[in-house]
Amino acid sequence: MSKRDLKKYLTGINKEQLENQIIELYDKFSDVKVYYDFVFNPNEEKLIREAKFKIANEYFPVKGKKAKMRRSVAQKYIKHFMKLGVDVTMVADIMLFTIETAQSFSSKRYIKYESFFKSIFTAFQQAVNFMIENGILNGFLDRVVEIKEEANRQKWVNSYEFNSFVEKVDDNFL
pTM for this one? Predict the structure, then answer.
């Protein structure tokens, strides 16, 4: 069904029928429930706190388990927050928090998987590009530079990529 057909259908039903359909959607589909819960009670700080806890738990588990280091957990939250329309500065904060947490973990433990470093660099590129697209990079510049510097201090195998990416961003956007 196209958007045009949907509009035509909605204009053909009365208010009570529309209300019943929305309530039915709310009951049947968890995405609709999450959306309306967020719209009517947009407690962004609570959502961010919960996300940061779960992301940190991937690297520093609370219950003594082995760290899983799954960047996918953070990606799911970021995608979810973008879908809900959470403030872009909060989304950027989560993006950088994920990278900073991974760097904190790698400073304490030796990581032999090159895929880890590649994944974190990809997250770094996505975060910086997101901030550029939304015009908020200057507000996070200190953290971006610190992430690059930390990759250098820890002698990451791809630290040169962090350096060249930040230089390119610096030349083009600052």
Answer: 0.82
